[in-house]
Amino acid sequence: MTTSQWPLQEAVYAKLTSDTAFMALVKGLFDEVPETVSHPYVSFGAATEVVDDAHNQRGLAVNLVLHIWSKYRGIREAAAILAALDAALDRQPLLVAGFRDVSVAHQQHQHVRDPDPDIRHINVAYRVWLTKE
To answer: The domain spanning residue 35 has which CATH number?
Structure first.
């Protein structure tokens, strides 16, 4: 089974960076965060794949984590970014190269206290199901 990790990340990146409501709230979406970036931004986190075949079809179930980073005092800014992220991804169509029947669902999110008291952090997990073409 071929991994979906890079095609999935490319698809999510394309979807989010073309979403004007989401991009209006962040300074960028990053795989590798540049040291010079200012807040707020979103970064890709871990992705875990599990084989999810059905009869004669090859499939994957992926837990994809995105991280929201903010320096706004309080959770308001990060929560607004989460809402825009969900509007773009949760139960929305996503074209992933080499796969069909792609389905995305918000699985969970967690507000995490960062060791730096000026930073607000929400990690967001999406469950993505894909069928290999």
So the answer is: 3.30.2000.30
Number of domains in the chain: 1
Whether this model's pTM surpasses 0.90: yes
CA distance 77 to 82: 9
Write b or e for each residue in 62-75: b if 16 or more Cβ atoms lie within 10 A of its Cβ, otherwise e.
bbbbbbbbbebeee
> Which structural domain range is residue 68 located in?
5-132
For residue range 72-128, list pLDDT tens digits in order. Answer: 999 999 999 999 999 999 999 999 999 999 999 999 999 998 899 999 999 999 999
3-state helix, strand, coil in the chain (%, to 5): 25, 40, 35
